[in-house]
Amino acid sequence: MTTTASAQVIQRKTRRGEGWGSYLSGAIIVIWCLLPFYWMMVVAFRDVSHTFDTTPWPTYLTLDNFAAALDPSGGNNLLRSIGNSLLISGVTTAVAVVLGVTVSYALARLNFSGKSFVTGIILAASMFPGIALVTPLFQLFTNISWLGTYQALIIPNISFALPLTIYTLTSFLHDLPWELEEAARVDGATRGQAFTRVILPLAAPAVFTTAILAFIATWNEYLLASQLSRPNVEPVTVAIARFAGANPYIQPYAAIMAAGTIVTVPLVILVLILQRRIVAGLTAGGVKS
C-alpha cells in the first residue's frame, strides 16, 4: 500500500515537472521568435535622438517615426509599396491556389502514368535555390521588356507558391473519403460537379490555410523582387530596404523600424485571428482514418 502511494506521488511529481518543462520550453521559443519584432517596435516608438538607447522597454515615446515613414516627400512611398505587395501577393495566391487545387486533385484522386515522376518534379522545383534563378530571369525579362513590371514579379512567385499549395492540398485531398465523390456521381453528378460541389467545400479549410501561407510567403519575398522590380512596382520588402531619409548621409533607422512595424503588425494580427483555422488546415488529413 505504501509502495503504491509512493509511486503515485512520483507520477504526480513527474507530470508536474513535465508541465513546467513544457511551459519553460514554450516561453523560450516565444521569446526567441518575438524578441526581434519586439525590439523593432521599441525603436519605432522611440525618439530618433535615442535610437541606440539599449533600455529594453519603450522610452522617449513618439509617433514621429511613423509620420516620417509615411511621408512621401523624402522620396519614399510606403503606401504605394504596400499596394504593390497586396497586388502581387493577392494575384500570386489566387493563381497558385486555383492551379494547386486542380493539380492536387489530379495527384490525389486520379491514376495516370508518370504520376510519381510529376510529384518528384514538383518536389525538385520546391528545392531549387532562388538565387540560381536571379540571373536567368533578369536576362529573360530584360530581353522581353518585362523588367520592372508586375508580371515579372508575379510569375516567379507563382512558381515558388505552387509546390507549397500542391503538397498541402494533395495530402488533404488524398485522405478525403472516396465514397462521398462516388455517391455524388451515382446521383448523376459529373466528375467536375462532384469536385466543385462535394470535394471543394470539404477541402475549404486546407485551401484557406494554403492561401494564407502562400500570401505570407509572397509578401515576405525579397530576393527576386530586389533584382526584378523598379520603384513604381517595388513591393514593400524592397521599399523598406531602400528607405532613405532627409539626410543622405544618415541612415533613418527609426523610420525603417516604423515602416517595418506598419508592414508586420497587420500580418501578425491576421495570423493571430486565424490561428485556429491555420492549425486546423495544417493538421487536417494528418490522421489516417
Fold and architecture overview:
The chain has 289 residues and is mainly alpha-helical. The protein has helices at residues 2-44, 64-70, 78-109, 115-127, 131-143, 150-174, 178-186, 191-202, 204-219, 223-228, 236-241, 253-273, 275-283. The protein starts with a helix and ends in a 6-residue tail after the last helix.
What amount of the residues lies in strands? Answer: under 5%
Note the quaternary state here. Answer: single chain
**Rounded Rg:** 25 Å
Average residue pLDDT: 84
The general outline is: flat
Biggest β-sheet: count, sense, barrel? none
SSE pattern: HHHHHHHHHHHHH
Unreliable sequence segments: none
Q: Distance between termini?
A: 43 Å
Q: Report the count of strand segments.
A: 0
Alpha plus pi helix count: 13
Structural class: mainly alpha
